[in-house]
Amino acid sequence: MSPESTGQNEHYLRVFWRRFRTWRGNRPFWAGLFTMVGGVPIAYFPYANMHLGNVTLAMSTTAGAGSLIIGILLVTLGLTMWFHHIVRVFAGVAAILLALISIPVANIGGFLIGFLFALLGGALSVSWAPGEPESELAPVGAAGEKSAENGHGPESGPEFHSTAAVPQQQPEQYDTTVEVDGGRHRAG
Known about the structure:
This protein is mostly helical and 188 residues long. The protein is built from 7 helices and 2 strands; from the N terminus they run H-H-E-E-H-H-H-H-H.
């Protein structure tokens, strides 16, 4: 075993962190986190009691059950974004709709805290797209190296090169056979 190999000598926290970063990069992590954080105040505030000295203020409303359902659904949608990222668009749209519904139902959306977090999480989930490996993004030349035409090769510098030409759309030629018989045609 050479002193350069770090496979067995690597600290378990470093290995865990590397695996976590890989897992996090393959799914809408922040969207799920913001959606779950948004669901907590929406579900919590209708059941919370605030103590100011000897005075207890109850935030309970008649819509406590509705806000609890909205909060639990937002947490569930956040977990869905993490573990079933294939349905991220549905989960994002559902989170946005639940955040909007929480304004009249759940104490102004958890005093706007839960509303804003759930809205941000839903928007991030809808806009998230899985990344593609870099090898698929850049064309490979005959020698096995990446092409220098698109700026990914070893010869390219830090400046931006745009060598790809924009294809021009050719106007369609006017077909005169369509207007025979006043625009009508005979079938048969």
